[in-house]
Amino acid sequence: MSNHKQPTVVLVHGAFADGSSWNGVVDKLKRAGYPVVAPANPLRGLHSDAAYLRDVVDSVEGPVVLAGHSYGGSVISEAAAGNDRVKALVYVAAFLPDEGESAAGLSGKFPGSTLGETLQEVPTALPGGAAVTDLYIDQDKFHGQFAADVPPATARRMAATQRPITSAALGEGAGAAAWRTVPSWALLTTEDKNIPVAAQRFMAERAEARTVTLDASHAVTVSQPDAVADLIEEAAKSIS
Known about the structure:
The protein has 10 helices and 9 strands. It is α/β, with parallel strands linked by helices.
């Protein structure tokens, strides 16, 4: 790939979403001149997902800004560790785990998450044959749980196309915490029913992240993409 004056922004979606959840954010960042990549996060296991993301980062040249939504925050934290081309981390309604912490453990650290009662379990297997349980949000509950501030028609499409995550991925402890050494930004969502805002705030403050707070659902990348893009651009400009 050719060199760019601007850092490349790599957008990492979380559970129950896919790369299209970043569409509005991509549009604004591209208009501002940033190269953007929004890869498919496998959602199979934290360490394997982070390894995949490291390969994606290695495929682009120059400095990188990593942005993660929800469980994607756990993935960028581990993937960025030891990579000096990752210059900034942006956490969007996301997990900022310390070493050994899991997404499931952090979301339950404070009251307020109603995700568990909306989940459907689908037994399946990994390519190597290992048995796992895929988790989906019940489509009838998706709008209220995940995307209450998104138009109903959009939420229905998101529910139908959601990507499942394995229960093991949510329970896997983080192997590294890149936010300890990489400048970080965090966008907190006060109406979040997946990751309570108290948990988001605890993690952001611990990481000394530069923080903004929005009255938004967990699906803030869809409901308020301009605000998300603005924070990512703020992080990108800090390294330009």
